[in-house]
Amino acid sequence: MGTQWLESLRTFDVQTLSLKQAGAWTTGRQAATAVLVMAVVLALGYVLLVQPGLAHLQQQRSVEPQLKAQWEARVREVATLERYRQHLQSLQTTFDDVHSQLPSQAQVPGLLEEVSRISLSRGLVIEHMQWLPQTLQPFYTELPLQLLLVGGYHDLGLFLSDIATLPRIVTLHDFTLTAATDGANGPLRMTLLAKTYRANDQGSIP
Known about the structure:
The chain is an alpha+beta fold and 206 residues long. It is built from four helices and five strands; from the N terminus they run H-H-H-E-E-E-H-E-E. Strands 1, 2, 3, 4 and 5 form a five-stranded antiparallel beta sheet that branches. Helix 1 (2-10) crosses helix 2.
């Protein structure tokens, strides 16, 4: 039986098929036709369904390392996001603290009075005190104050210490110290530049 079926399959000629006579076909011809139809269906299914899916799968596999690297980078970003937020909050707090120490336009004359008061409280003589032209920086403005004071060495040191403890930011620059008289133990003359600062949105100095 099997030998006859294989023989009929080898001698099978598609051109001799007639669907009108399908009922009269021999068992071998019917089997051969079924095998042929199945093979065509399988071939078309592979070409139309399986092959595109395999190509898409291969494409996805080729981009998998890149996608994995992107995912790992996002995971690291999320893990450090809270630390970045805390750092940003710390910077904002520091900025607000420094900004609060910048004198406003209305406070600049008061700062001048405060320097004068400290000088007199330490027994110093103010020979000269004058605002110099302001210097504009990107985020703040420097307000330089030229000072010329006369007094004892110890009193001058206390004056500088008092200036450094003011609630507003004042920095001291360009010190010079010379004898005010010819005597060896006489008073000293000190010149210095005191700079205070204000935010750029607070107008110009009076």
